[in-house]
Amino acid sequence: MYLEPVSETTVHRGQEQWRSIRTLGSLFGTAQDVTRRIGLSAVAFGRMKAIWFRRQHLQTNTMVRLYNAYVLPILTYNIGCAGLSKALEDSLDKIHRKQLRHMLGIFYPRVVSNDDLYELAHTEPISAMAKRARWRLLGHILRQPSSTPGNQAMIAYASMEDAVRHRRGAPRSCLVTTLQQDVKFTAVALKTSRNLETLRSCAVDRQKWSNICSAVV
Question: Domain map of the chain by residue range?
């Protein structure tokens, strides 16, 4: 039986083969990597169920330290490099809260708000951790020489935006578009080469950069 080869035009958006390529422990496709990490964290969390079942014999701080050492790093690994959409952030926050509730033994009919849950576990949403990691990484890259790969990538993106200012359709989610969402309600911009150079001058002054990060996060 003859099968017609699949052309590149038949590959739907978000299903490209390069998204499943893994490098430095992360998949190129952000959605695919988040799904994989949620699964891996569930496995790691399940391996510690003997500890969670003995929660009445352990202090909350001890359980939180164990969770932060063995489970949370799986969810947050390389998270500063990921262009997370709002839906992906919600998925990470949801599994994080689910694991925290199970770890602390908070089940129905006992009800605890999300804010109280984070306070009990002495933690914060993964979306907040991701935002802080993104801007810490951006500042680190901007302070590096312009010849470094990270700076070259940002310069190329800004140059492309300068050349194609009126592109039609929604932009693909990536690290830059996520950073642009972060600064939507501030005076900072990240869309053109001029914006990039302004941010670079701010990053050199660590106090000024810290103020920008505080306003964003």
Answer: 26-124, 131-216
